[in-house]
Design a protein that fits this description.
By secondary structure, this protein is mostly helical. The chain has a domain of about 45 residues. Helices cover about 65% and strands about 0% of the residues. The protein has three helices and no strands. The relative contact order is 0.04.
């Protein structure tokens, strides 16, 4: 721990030590609940930002692949190639 602490910390610590056990317990429970609530809120904000980024990228990606069939769309005969690698037009000649 650092040698010199913030004077506000020292004052808070001293005042906490002066509390009786019931007040210390109440203070710790309230401080813990407050800290957890702020942490959950922060995680929620990070998650929302991450999801927004994912959706933004998906929109950009779908706009650039608009000429290709979607996952549920069948490919057309012009785009389909046999597994051998030869094109349909190559086989008919």
């Amino acid at each position: 721990m650092p040698e010199s602490r913030d004077p506000r910390y020292e004052e808070t610590r001293r005042r906490f030590d002066e509390l009786d056990v019931e007040h210390k317990t109440r203070f710790l429970v309230e401080a813990t609940a407050s800290t957890l609530a702020r942490g959950v809120q922060h995680v929620g904000e990070l998650l929302a930002d991450g999801l927004e980024d994912v959706f933004r990228r998906a929109r950009r990606g779908s706009a650039s692949s608009a000429h290709r069939p979607g996952a549920a769309e069948p490919e057309t005969a012009q785009r389909r190639q046999p597994r051998s690698g030869a094109r349909e037009s190559d086989r008919s000649s």
